[in-house]
Design a protein that fits this description.
The structure holds 2 protein chains of 2 kinds.
Chain A: H1 2-31, E1 42-45, H2 48-53, E2 62-64, H3 72-85, E3 91-95, H4 107-110, H5 112-122, H6 128-159, H7 178-189, E4 190-192, E5 195-196, H8 201-216, E6 220-225, H9 230-234, H10 238-250, E7 255-259, E8 270-272, E9 275-276, H11 278-292
Parallel strand pairs in A: 1-2, 1-3, 3-6, 6-7
Antiparallel strand pairs in A: 4-5, 8-9
Chain B: H1 6-21, H2 27-40, H3 47-66, H4 70-106, H5 124-140, H6 149-157, H7 170-173, H8 185-218, H9 225-257, H10 274-280, H11 283-294, H12 304-322, H13 326-344, H14 346-355, H15 362-381, H16 385-394, H17 399-407, H18 420-442, H19 445-451, H20 454-471
Helix pairs in contact in B: 1-2, 2-6, 3-4, 3-5, 3-6, 4-5, 8-9, 8-18, 8-20, 9-15, 11-12, 12-13, 13-15, 15-16
The chains are: A alpha/beta, B mainly alpha.
Chain lengths: 296, 484
């Protein structure tokens, strides 16, 4: 009787997994149909920093697909999908800030507060090796999020809207304050009070993967450090700044660094200590637009 | 630990597998340990409160059985005072204190009593009532005192029904912990089917409807009559699917291991009267109140005014059982008025139905009962009394304005938390739920499924799993009745 029970549970499990596998295949086919306007050949990718900073309605021929909390493993897979479907893309602007390689970015793959939304958004687009990397970070999290992952895939297929494709998003608010800056610094650079984060091997691995991919596909890659306030910069632990420039230097053959962290903006043009607001974004986008489009 | 969580899935598989793997006489230890773990997954320290009532009632049971005359009553009273005392401190103290302060303020006096900043232990009202039913039954001589402390503890703590019932009677449950349950394929699949159906009701229907009811009921002033009506109707189905979904999962989980728990729901929205509704809704609680409050008060074997008073007391206490808030008291009182009103107008209604035969229609009776129950749900769901009164005042008053807007081709829809597709799906799910209930009135769906060829059955199970996976809301939203 036990054998009969286990056999039938096994059959149900296999059938359900098979249906989900077929469903995922259909989703991947659908991903291959994402088309971007033919005139758009600059893709802005990354986390909230590029999402807030580059207004794609101002910058010519560009599309900002950045998403808040996006880590390089997700950006890498997103770039692959979008570039594959849209060969006209010849330039990618990638968010590369002092925090980008910090161990704090791994929280986006391990802490439930982030994975609850992050996994359904990005797990469907991960290639097998990226999926294994995510599973090695947080197997239980992926399993727990699996219903939401499949629902996200279903909704994307029904509506042809993909939440992994971000957009320029900003407001005119300026909320510069000490408390907010403290929270951000702690999130990016500290494990706990006075204990600094290490570096994330995963973030570095996928940054290099993006560089390699762009190189292979003959896409110009620009690493962009967006403006931050001076007070915020002064409180970033030195090791992150040194590591940042060391890696940028290592990659300089294949990726151009545009370091605008000290770009002069009035305080009222910052949304918070490390993000520009709508007004800052306008000024900053015009500057980047002149640097990129005018140099063509 | 929530039944609709990944944590519970793992817990259930481990507990059930090991339950069948260990000798019969040791299973109670495993079940008790698992139940402790289950309860401690919420707030670990509160197991001490549970431990306190278990110890009190365990000894009270033995003392009551051994004592004679007035001493029996004394021990029963001690046990009841201890149980009600725990409820009073953790559930009602702040409510009573708040109202006391209000009263003193009207005499320009200040209240010297402090407010307690404590969280309500989860499921307190459920396991307290279950414990009380044990000592009362021992006192009445209907149940022998349980001498085995572990088995008695398990009676109170049995994890499937620990935090939200069904509130079991000792005669039904205690002896089951001594019985030997083998691995029975049909029983286990039947339990799993029931758990699957319960999970479907919770995560696919209740939590979907909750998006609308939460949004509208948290700020009713921002919504028009149409949305207040939609949210109120949705809440009726949300609370049914939430609580009956929990009960199905509890009964199913117990059944898998061989235990039989009482049914808690019997298609309550098909009731043709309020009296019938209470025979179909939260049956374990309504029978508890019938047996341990209504009948001891004299039931209906007293003069008519006293009978009505008994009904009123029972329903107000039932409201208070749900929560320390005036909204729950009014909810209970409304049901009492419905029942008393129905009794007072019985003769008139019988006469009028002879003159107007259409009033005998079952559909009309069902709709009228649903309407009355749903109006009462407004008080149950509203965040506070002023919100409830606002909704009652505005739920129908804006209809002429809405009609006017429709006639002028203006939109009357507001965003109420779900997309149009999800709203349509919600309506379809409610219709599906009632269709299932309609079929169940004539035949058992479980029996129907069992008669089907095995591949059809397996396809249905796969379909249920996939539906839950694709349409469920997996935000690990707690069951409504956990708060009681």
């Amino acid at each position: 009787m036990v054998a009969k029970f286990i056999k039938r549970i096994g059959i149900i499990f296999v059938v359900v997994v098979a249906i989900l596998f077929v469903f995922r295949c259909l989703y991947i086919v659908q991903l291959g149909k994402i088309r971007i306007d033919k005139k758009t050949h600059i893709l802005v990718c990354g986390d909230s920093h590029t999402q807030c900073a580059l207004n794609d309605s101002i910058m010519k021929h560009s599309l900002n697909v950045s998403n808040s909390g996006e880590v390089y493993i997700n950006t890498y897979n997103k770039i692959k999908i979008l570039k594959n479907d849209n060969p006209q893309i010849d330039t990618i602007i990638l968010a590369y800030g002092f925090h980008s390689l910090s161990g704090g970015t791994d929280n986006f793959l391990t802490k439930e507060i982030w994975t609850r939304k992050g996994f359904p958004t990005y797990v469907p687009i991960l290639d097998n090796s990226s999926l294994l990397d995510v599973l090695s970070q947080n197997t239980v999290g992926v399993i727990k999020a699996s219903p939401n992952i499949f629902q996200e895939m279903l909704n994307s297929m029904l509506d042809s809207k993909y939440s992994f494709i971000g957009y320029y998003n900003n407001t005119g608010h300026s909320l510069l304050n000490e408390h907010g800056m403290e929270i951000t610094l702690n999130r990016h650079y500290y494990k706990e009070k006075n204990v600094e984060q290490g570096f994330s091997p995963l973030a570095e691995k996928y940054l290099r993967a993006i560089v390699q991919y762009c190189n292979d596909k003959h896409v110009k890659l620009i690493l962009l450090n967006t403006p931050i306030t001076k007070e915020y910069y002064n409180r970033i632990p030195d090791k992150f700044v040194k590591h940042y420039y060391a890696i940028a230097n290592e990659l300089k053959q294949n990726a151009t660094l545009i370091d605008m962290h000290s770009f002069k903006l009035e305080n009222k043009m910052f949304g918070d200590a490390d993000h520009v607001n709508e007004y800052g974004a306008t000024v900053f986008t015009e500057k980047i637009d002149s640097l990129i489009n005018n140099s063509r | 630990m929530l039944f609709n969580s990944f944590h519970f899935l793992v817990f259930f598989i481990v507990v059930t597998t090991l339950y069948f793997s260990i000798p019969y006489n040791k299973r109670w230890i495993w079940l008790l340990a698992s139940s402790c773990y289950f309860y401690m997954a919420f707030i670990p320290i509160y197991i001490l409160i549970l431990g306190f009532t278990i110890v009190i009632d365990y000894f009270a049971g033995i003392f009551i059985e051994n004592a004679e005359g007035r001493r029996r009553k004394l021990f029963l009273v001690c046990s009841l005072v201890a149980n009600i005392g725990v409820l009073a401190v953790f559930k009602y103290y702040n409510f009573i204190n708040l109202n006391f302060t209000f009263l003193l303020h009207s005499f320009k006096l200040s209240n010297p009593l402090p407010y307690l900043t404590i969280l309500l232990p989860i499921g307190l009202s459920f396991h307290t009532f279950q414990a009380m039913s044990y000592t009362i039954e021992v006192y009445r001589g209907q149940q022998k005192a349980e001498r085995h402390f572990g088995i008695y503890s398990l009676y109170v703590m049995f994890y499937p029904q620990l935090v939200a019932g069904p509130i079991e009677r000792p005669q039904n449950l205690l002896h089951q912990f001594r019985e030997k349950y083998d691995f029975d394929y049909d029983r286990i699949t039947s339990g799993l089917r029931l758990m699957g159906w319960g999970l479907f009701k919770k995560v696919v229907i209740a939590d979907r409807l909750a998006v609308v009811t939460d949004l509208v009921y948290n700020s009713p002033q921002e919504f028009n009559s149409l949305n207040l009506i939609i949210a109120t109707v949705f809440f009726a189905f949300q609370i049914f699917c939430d609580f009956s979904g929990y009960s199905d999962m509890a009964i199913g989980a117990a059944r898998v291991m061989g235990f039989t728990l009482m049914n808690n729901f019997n298609q309550p929205y098909h009731a043709k009267s309020i009296n019938e509704f209470w025979k179909r809704w939260h049956i374990s609680l309504s029978t508890w109140f019938r047996d341990y409050l209504y009948i001891p008060l004299g039931g209906n074997r007293v003069p008519i005014p006293r009978w009505y008073l008994n009904l009123f007391i029972v329903f107000v206490v039932s409201g208070l059982w749900h929560g320390a808030n005036w909204t729950f008291i009014i909810w209970g009182a409304l049901h009492a008025f419905y029942l008393i009103g129905a009794l007072m107008t019985e003769k008139i209604r019988t006469k009028s139905s002879n003159i107007l035969p259409f009033t005998k229609s079952s559909v009309l009776s069902i709709l009228t009962t649903f309407f009355l129950v749903d109006i009462a749900w407004i008080f149950f769901r509203a965040n506070n009394l002023s919100s409830a009164l606002y909704i009652v005042k505005h739920i129908f008053s804006g209809i002429p304005d809405l009609v006017n807007k429709v006639l002028h081709h203006q939109s009357v829809f507001q965003f109420i938390g779900l997309s149009k597709r999800d709203l349509m799906l919600s309506a379809c799910l409610i219709i599906f739920l009632e269709a299932v209930h309609f079929v169940q009135r004539k035949t058992s769906i479980s029996a129907m499924v069992l008669k089907m060829p095995v591949y059809v059955r397996l396809s249905i199970y796969c379909g249920l799993i996939l539906t839950i996976l694709f349409l469920g809301f997996f935000r690990e939203k707690a069951f409504i009745y956990y708060q009681f």
